[in-house]
């Protein structure tokens, strides 16, 4: 039968439609709409086994399409449509699995899982776009790049429970705090002068601004406060390892609440450390020090009041609480003017 006036579907049309369809589900997942209960038949081990399987299938279907368009002649529209359809089925399976994970498994787990799924989908969008480019110009660099991107994203080792995800979040935060301590050490090597400014000193007529003796004492107090925060994060990870649980919703919520409480530590430490460079602004430094000490104190109090600690942990909880108070008092004392002219 004649189809006059109707444009035939092209290879580029297929890949454009694939890209659009993936974009639709990506926006839905970013929107955060979830079924609170998930699947009533949810079984953790079986669920994550299914997720592993669909990631492997996504990688396999992507590879098939990539190889099919690695050289001329390209497959027919009909054969390509069949391959695209298989890839779309795997994508829909992944999306269905994502939505079937119960929220009761934990907000931290859900956040990590969402990031992984979105990264896979983002790579698939890039892959679909690269195939359009391939059929238009026969350029293959982007196709190869995005094929590799899908492989890499699909091979990520997924953390499968809230406890693992919480521990990772705490470890990531601790690493950033350690970086801040490294920055303090580097600042000491330049005597508080911002490194980039050292290069330009020969072109300046004024004297190089460095730390005073008082500044050095103040920065030492700052370092003590940051080290206390780092120690709190280390002990909190140990507490999560020992007593963190995913066996009931209240235990899962405790882990989520603690991670939420620690979420501002990294930015607070950054704001604090930014103030240590010469000329040191003591007012801003003290204000940021108070904020960091408040967050660290709140974390310690949360741990003390939760099931993550017991009476056995009282000694280190007390020690770190006292260390927060001591270092803040030291900071406030050292930032006072040395004399009437200060």
UniProtKB/TrEMBL annotation:
One of its GO terms (cellular component) is nucleus. It is found in: Cytoplasm; Nucleus. Residues 203-300 form the Cyclin-D1-binding protein 1-like C-terminal domain. It comes from the Eukaryota. Coiled coil: none annotated. PANTHER family: CYCLIN D1-BINDING PROTEIN 1, CYCLIN-D1-BINDING PROTEIN 1. Belongs to the CCNDBP1 family. This is Cyclin-D1-binding protein 1.
